[in-house]
Structures are given as structure tokens and as C-alpha cells.
Request: fold
Amino acid sequence: MSSTKGKDLPQVSDEEFPEPEDSDANPEEEEEEQQKEIVVIDDELIEELKQAIPKGNPVQLAQAVDVIMGALELKENVIFEEEHKLNPLTEILVPLVSKVYSIYEANPTGKKHQITEKMLADIVQTYESFEKFKGSAELLEAFFETVLITRKFVDKIDISKALTTAVKFGISNPKYSEITNKELQKICDDTTFLPIVFNLRYDEYKNLADKQHTESIERLLPELIAFFTEKGEISKSFVKKLIKNLASRICDDIVKKDKGIISWGTVAEMNFITEFILKTEDQRFVYPYLTELYSFLRNFPTANYLPFQLRAAQNIAQICSKFSKISPLLAWSADSMAIICSLHCKGKGGRFDWDNELVAPQNVNYEYAEEAFDRLSRIIHAQLVEFSENIAFPEYSQFIKRRLEEITINAKNDRLKYRPKALIKTISEQQDALISIKNNLQWKDRKEQIAAWAPAMEEMPTPIKTSAERSKKVEEAIRKANAANRQNNEAVVDATGDRVERVNADNFLD
Reply:
């Protein structure tokens, strides 16, 4: 085999795109002969090509294409010196594809079009060689830029496959997430590719949630919401389809009874839709979406799926609070308490992993049952706090009070059945306080009564209001103490030496 330095290839004027020379040789024989000649690439050649590419010299463009093909290991006769340091994929790929594509577009017919079309056909083989672009952020950026420049030259299916591979890699690696988001933003400037990018980013978010659970949701969701909300009506159409699709999946699961929808991917989906609605404040989604979330509470057995249902409940609470909607959570929470307080528990057992499990343990112990009760109790307390200063609170809260009283009488687990008494006491005290305030108001009609109510509430600290303020102070103190001790992984304890549990009326999952 013969060998030559790549830089020794002949030079041609900038504007010259020569026709192929006539030859009596068989084309296959010519190609085989070319393959026998080894071209050695060094840093000097890469630098020369880097300087020459903007001039559009066809021979040097073709030479640069060969170098890229060699770097991708798609051209056997192109090899690199052992001591070379420059990577052509980061040094010349993007300027090369940009120049070749600009010539291709500027010449819709003729030999320039034919030659650059052949060059582009070679260059887009990078789509199938993503492994070569995993080494650094610069390599990943070069891959995205190549796809961006050639997006109109190749089929959308190929673009989708290439972007899917790159996005999965970029988003799953935190050190590449910034460059991935930056490049996707560029691609989104071409609105015809928005649906592809939407699906890519959303699917990868859900897939990572299935693997990494809460960690990936908390890490990816803020960035994802920011990306979607700035896209306007196009993103709203995407979310509308998500809500419709979620409804279909819920119906299918209810009919088939396979419960495949109970997954971390669905949790990620709920959190995404909720955050999107809260950010955009688009009330068109509220009632259809709340209906779907409520289906999770009423059509799936609480004894089996309470950990998942608590996450649905948290989303319901956020939506209802934001848009001042009446929440169904009080009734569901009380009914769920009745189920929990009648469970047959088998001893103390181990701790249930509420952070990573969505399905209740098969053998329920008291540790799980008591924690489940406490979480439901916090839902009820949070709902009561929200309406605690409403003039209609005494009447509004009466049904939940009676339901809790029924639990203390009818529940089958003697150890758990009396736990609702603390909530009953809180409701009774708040009812008595508000009735007393109402009775002391001077009013002639309903309008005057309501007008006098707000000033009276400000002057009179009610039991629930006082308790909520105290809980916030305790929670803040615990949060600060935990932050101070987290590095040493120490438990926070109170003055008696007992472990302090975090109490948060606004978050039922803690």
C-alpha cells in the first residue's frame, strides 16, 4: 500500500468544482485503488483545513470530509498520527458542514449541487456514529450543531432518532444538561421541529423518573417547565394531548384492572401537568385534569395504592388552592382514614420507604399504618387551615367531624381507631371560636355580617390559625437544624431525646 500525507493533495482555486476526469478504468477498480492509498492525518493538516474551509475550495472540502469520515472510523484508509492532539470532530466538523450546506443551498442545480450533495450524504453518517461524540461537551455540541444545520437535508425520522439518542445522553448526565438545553433551544427556533423536541424532552423526563424517582423529578422539572412555558400556545396543545391521553389510560386501567398506570412515570406526568397549569394559569385545563386526579383517589383501592394516591392528592391541593376551587380531599381523606384504622396490622415490622414506593406493603404493620394515618391527617389539617377563617367554616367542617367520629366508633383496629380524636378536638374548638365571633357581630343583613367578619377575624386568633403559625415556626426550626446536621447525617432530636418529625400542613408527603 502507498502512503501520503493528507496535506499533500493538490490545491484547486476557490471557485473551481472540476468535472470528474474521463477514465477507461472500471469505477469499482478506481475505488479499490483509492482505498489502498493510506492518508495520514496530523494536527498540522487539521489546522490547515480549519483555515481553508471558509474559502470553499472543493478539494479541501472533500479532504475535510475524508478526515471526518476517518475520525468516525468510516473510512479505512484514513488514519491519524499517534501523537495528534486535535480532534477534527470539534475543530472542523461544524464549519465544514455549514460551508458545504451553504454551497448546496445556493446552487439548487448543476455540478456544485451534485458534489456538495454527495459530501452532505457522507457527513450525515455522523447521525449513526453518536458514540464518537460522548467524550466532552464540545463533542456533544458539535453533534447537535451538525443535526441542526442538516435538518432540512435528511428525513425527519432520522432527525428524531439522532436527537433522541443525543438528548437521552445529555439530559441523563448533569454535566451535559446545560449544553443539551442550549442546543435544543436552537432547534426549537424552527417551529416545525417543536413537536419532536417536546416529545424527546418529555419522554426522557418520564423515563428518568421511572429509574431515579423523586430525585430526577425534582432535578429536571423546573428546567422542563421553563422550557415548555416559554413556547406559548404550541406547548399548551402538547399538554392538552397529555391530559386527554392520561384520561384514556386511566379508563383502560380501570376496565382492565391491571393498574399499570401506578408508576413513577405517572407521578412525573402529574407533577409536570400541575406545574404547567400553575405557571400558565390556564383554567381551561383545571376541571378535566382535576377529574382525572380524583379518579386516582376513588377508582383505585386505598388499601393498596395510598402512597401513590397521596401524590395525586398533593397535586389536587395545589390546583384547588391556586384557582380557589372546592377540593374533594376532605371526604376522600376521611374515607381513607376509615380504611387505615380498620387494617389488620402484623406487629411493628420494618420501615416503609415512602420516598420510593408507590404501592402499600403486602403485610401491613403498625409503622406503615400510623404513618399513613399521619399523612392523611395532614391533608385534612391543611384543608381545614385553608378554610379556617371562612364565615361558613362551622357548617362546612361539620360533615368531616361526624365522619371522623364514626371512625372512632366503627373502626376495627383498636390501636388506631381513636387517633382521629385530636382532629375532632381541633375542629370543635375552631367551630366554637367562629360561632362565638359570629354571635358577637352586630349586623342587619348578610352583607353587613360579611363586611364585619374580616376585621373580627384579624382581632381574634382562632385555634387552627394559632396552631398553623406554631407549626410553621416548629417546621422552620427543624429545617434549620436538619440543614446544620445533614453533613454529619445526624438525627434531629428534641429536649427529651425523642426524634422530631417534620410537621408541614402544606405538604402531605413529608
Observations:
- Residues 6-14, 20-25, 490-506 have pLDDT under 50 and may be disordered.
- The first strand starts at residue 3 and ends at 5.
